[in-house]
Amino acid sequence: MKLTSLDLERFCAFKRTSLPFSPGINVLIGANGTGKSHLMKLLYSILKANEKAEKNDPHSPNTLTTLLAQKLVAVFRPDSMRPEGAPKDELGGLGRLVFRKKGRNSGHVKLASDAGKLQFTLTSLGRLKNLEDALPSGGAALFIPSREALAMYEGFVGNYEKRVLSFDETYYDICVALSSSPVRGPWPKEFSGLNTELETELGGRVHEAGGRFYVYSSDGVIEAHLLAEGLRKLASLFRLLQNQSLTSNGFLFWDEPEANLNPRLVTLISRILRRLANAGVQVFVTTHDYLLSSELSLAAEYARQSPEDLRCEIRFFCASRSAGGGVEIESAATLPQLSGNPILKEFAAHYDREQSLFKGQ
Fold first, then answer.
1. Cα 196 to the chain's mean position, in Å?
2. What is the pLDDT, as a whole number, of residue 219?
3. How far is CA 149 from CA 72, 126, 129, 171, 251, in A?
4. Cα dihedral value 310, 115, 134, 74, nearest 10
């Protein structure tokens, strides 16, 4: 199953928008506060609830309506009560995910795939209703947050379950995924080559022992939290592929994969994302990085010149604030086709400042 489109009305910062997805890589760019991570968290929440729902038993406590409401609260973490100082018509819970305006309001979400669709309404009173579900259970969904999780892994799951920690549930989910044991035998053929590429960059293989992660190399054993943060991201990806938390028919949501990576590793991440998409993973990423977005744009524009195992469909989305206060989404096949691109705009402004200083000498 591949997601094909998302239509939103009055959800979070979005008054009304529609996103046509690529079955390969979907790249979300835009200024801070334009809802890019919210879009990925929404998709992830729907897919994770859909994985667990008992659809054949309407009396089960694990119906999709119940699980989806719980997952949205756990992932977005809205206040359960009206925050102090907020207008009296603002309530707590799921109602805080509805686009803010005076009086009662409701938002609508519609997610379509090539095998079915799902839609529901959220009210400002905090209810999830009018759920229409024809979305089959697809591959597993995996969300990699912007903050690296491997170093915080030790004791995280137990403390989260005791409510000692206040992270959103994407961090709990990624730690649970990392905890799965490696699958014995060779890696699936669709991911062949990725293990070698990641091992070469890390200098060894990733193992868990005593609740901690280590990289075992010819030079010895290195604790994961002694690795550079960028390398820990690669080690996490190695583990998730090794234990098949990430599979060829699954979904990968990666929030700012370029964070704390040097440019060479950013280029490597671009190749890895394309390999994953070529192997059948539907990928969604947010980025503020010029190099990562440009590498993917060149891959989209010159797809025929790419090696066969790196070819995939790519689509770009740019989120921006409209005059009315909501967020609008523009989509295109390459970065230059977007009329508003804050990454390119700021780099052009930097070049102009540089030229101005040069001429002023």
1. 25
2. 80
3. 21, 31, 34, 7, 19
4. -10
Give pLDDT, residue 82.
66
Tell me what pLDDT residue 260 has.
86
Helical (H) or strand (E) element with 299: helix 290-301
Same-domain status, 20 and 119: yes
In degrees rounded to 5, what are phi and psi of residue 192? Answer: -60, 135
Structure tokens at 224: 């994961």
Among 222, 246, 270, the domain boundary falls at 246
The residue type of 148 is E
Give the pLDDT score at 46.
96
* Same domain flag for 25 and 116: yes
The DSSP bridge partners found for residue 315 are: 26
The pLDDT of residue 243:
92
Which position has the token pair 């689509």?
Answer: 315
Closest by CA position to 327, among listed 5, 35, 9:
35
| Amino acid making up residue 145 | P
Q: Which residues of the chain have pLDDT under 70?
A: 58-59, 81-92, 102-103, 361
CA pair distance 314, 37, nearest whole angstrom: 18
The answer on 222 and 119 residing in a single domain is no
Supply 100's token pair: 């803010």
Per-residue confidence (pLDDT) for residue 103, from 0 to 100: 65
Amino acid at 339: S
| Predicted pLDDT of residue 139 | 86
Question: Are 39 and 13 within 8 A, CB to CB?
Answer: no
Q: Is residue 145 part of a domain?
A: no
- Report pTM: 0.93
DSSP state string for 204-252? EEEEEETTEEEEEETTEEEEGGGS-HHHHHHHHHHHHHHTTSS-TTSEE
Q: What is the DSSP secondary-structure string of 129-189?
A: EEEEE-----SPEEEE-SS--STT-TTHHHHHHTT-----HHHHHHHHHHHSPPPSSSPPG
